[in-house]
């Protein structure tokens, strides 16, 4: 777990205006303050101080046409993009969201899915001629997905399953060719991060065959929500068959000598996580697995 210094220079660039309101900038200021004044890597204490600060920040704030929760989620998504996927600040952000779930004004985490969807519209473009400066960079995209995957792995955060399936499909079920959003190696990194951060949740849904419909015709499996990619011919949604395909694909891609060091490290971590989960399942009953994830 990293504790390296964080940089939010891009978020403070007035020309880019990635944080579009004063309220979002205030949330960034607060996050920077609690992170810089926390000498120990204490996620619980730091997140509680962040939550306390958000509560104090709320009264009398003019949030424009955004509700208080949406302003918060919008800011946190951008902040998460600037926090390295292995930095303990990611855990601070996720724990903060879970704590806010019990706080008046944020209770139930209203609109968190909507704001995550808005961020997904800003995935990095591979085509430099079509690049929009408001888009997440490739590194920010990996970091944001780490945040989303950590949220998905925990309870009471709402349904982020569509994001999980989408990223795993894009990274592992398509041909490794370039298209405009995002480039292939970034897609692979993001797929690995979803496995690393939410492996148990992915396995639980696979055991339950969530969103899988064995009666569906194969032609519609490529276009409906939770769809499959061209290299996979099984059911859409979650299944043990699809889990097994993802793992085999990671092993195959590990043999390609075309990626950077970070990518191979992420592949190794993902394979290790999947193997560990499979071994643990052999020691547990089906019910125990469902209850523990």
Q: Helical segment tally?
A: 11
Largest sheet: none
What is the helix/strand order? HHHHHHHHHHH
Q: Determine the fraction of residues in helical runs and give it as a percent range.
A: 55-70%
Q: What is the mean pLDDT?
A: 89
Radius of gyration: 19 Å
Alpha-carbon distance between the two ends: 22 Å
- The assigned structural class equals mainly alpha
Would you identify the regions where 5 or more consecutive residues have pLDDT less than 50? none
Strand content: under 5%
Total beta strands: 0
Structurally, the number of domains stands at 2
Name the overall outline. globular
Written description of the protein model:
The protein folds into two domains: 1-121, no CATH class; 148-293, no CATH class. Helix content is 56%, strand content 0%. The chain has helices at residues 22-36, 43-57, 68-81, 88-100, 112-120, 138-153, 161-172, 184-208, 240-254, 261-282, 286-292. Helix 3 (68-81) packs across helix 5 (112-120). The protein is globular, with a radius of gyration of 19 Å. The mean pLDDT is 89.
Primary descriptors:
293 residues, mainly alpha, 2 domains, 11 helices
Question: How do you describe this structure in short?
Answer:
This protein has 293 residues and is mainly α.
Helices, strands, pairings?
Layout (H helix, E strand, L loop, with lengths): L21 H15 L6 H15 L10 H14 L6 H13 L11 H9 L17 H16 L7 H12 L11 H25 L31 H15 L6 H22 L3 H7 L1
């Amino acid at each position: 777990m990293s504790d390296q210094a964080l940089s939010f220079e891009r978020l403070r660039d007035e020309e880019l205006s990635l944080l579009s309101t004063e309220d979002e900038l205030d949330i960034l200021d607060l996050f920077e303050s609690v992170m810089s004044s926390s000498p120990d890597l204490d996620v619980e204490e730091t997140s509680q101080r962040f939550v306390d600060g958000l509560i104090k920040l709320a009264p009398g704030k003019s949030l424009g046409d955004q509700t208080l929760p949406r302003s918060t989620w919008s800011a946190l998504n951008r902040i998460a993009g600037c926090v390295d996927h292995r930095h303990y600040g990611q855990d601070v952000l996720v724990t903060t969201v879970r704590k806010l779930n019990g706080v008046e004004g944020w209770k139930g985490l209203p609109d968190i899915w909507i704001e995550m969807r808005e961020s997904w519209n800003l995935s990095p473009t591979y085509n430099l001629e079509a690049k929009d400066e408001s888009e997440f960079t490739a590194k920010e995209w990996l970091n944001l997905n780490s945040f989303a995957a950590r949220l998905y792995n925990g309870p009471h955060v709402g349904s982020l399953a569509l994001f999980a399936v989408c990223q795993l499909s894009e990274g592992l079920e398509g041909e490794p060719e370039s298209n405009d959003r995002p480039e292939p190696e970034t897609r692979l990194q993001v797929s690995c991060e979803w496995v690393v951060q939410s492996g148990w949740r992915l396995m639980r849904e696979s055991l339950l065959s969530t969103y899988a419909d064995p009666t569906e015709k194969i032609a519609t499996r490529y276009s409906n929500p939770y769809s499959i990619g061209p290299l996979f011919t099984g059911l859409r949604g979650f299944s043990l068959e699809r889990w097994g395909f993802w793992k085999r694909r990671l092993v195959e891609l590990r043999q390609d000598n075309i990626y950077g060091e970070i990518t191979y490290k992420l592949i190794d971590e993902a394979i290790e996580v999947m193997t560990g989960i499979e071994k643990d399942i052999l020691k547990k009953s089906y019910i125990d697995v469902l209850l523990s994830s």
